[in-house]
Write a structure and sequence with these properties.
Number of strands: 2
Shape: elongated
Number of domains: 2
Number of helices: 5
Helix content: 55-70%
Strand content: 5-15%
Largest sheet: 2 strands, antiparallel
Order of helices and strands: HEEHHHH
Structural class: mainly alpha
Strand order of the largest sheet: 1-2
Radius of gyration: 18 Å
């Protein structure tokens, strides 16, 4: 369950409304927040499943091609929507919102 502080950060960073969450804060007051965190998590989980499937294929293959497997992994993990979802979730973790290098920027 997200903390009230996390929910407030999400709302302050311009999250588009999808689901309204009502949370009791530590001060005993109710905080309402709208967020789309579910969409970002679904995108990231789908990418992780696809990447794990590629790694499993590589491990069971008799003819292993590491370069091809890495290219496939980059293709999965460096998709625009996956990078965007990771950036959105990372921004919630950091109070100052300091940018960090992502896979897309490193390549």
């Amino acid at each position: 369950m997200p903390t009230p502080t996390l929910l407030l950060r999400m709302a302050n960073r311009g999250w588009k409304p999808k689901a309204r969450l009502r949370v009791l804060s530590s001060r005993g007051t109710c905080v309402e927040c709208e967020c789309v965190m579910k969409d970002e998590l679904t995108t990231i989980l789908d990418a992780m499943r696809a990447a794990q499937a590629e790694l499993a294929d590589y491990l069971v293959s008799a003819d292993r091609n590491a370069e091809l497997t890495i290219a496939k992994l980059v293709g999965i993990l460096d998709r625009r929507e996956v990078v965007r979802a990771m950036r959105s979730l990372r921004a919630l973790e950091r109070p100052g919102g300091v940018p960090q290098t992502t896979l897309a920027e490193a390549s």
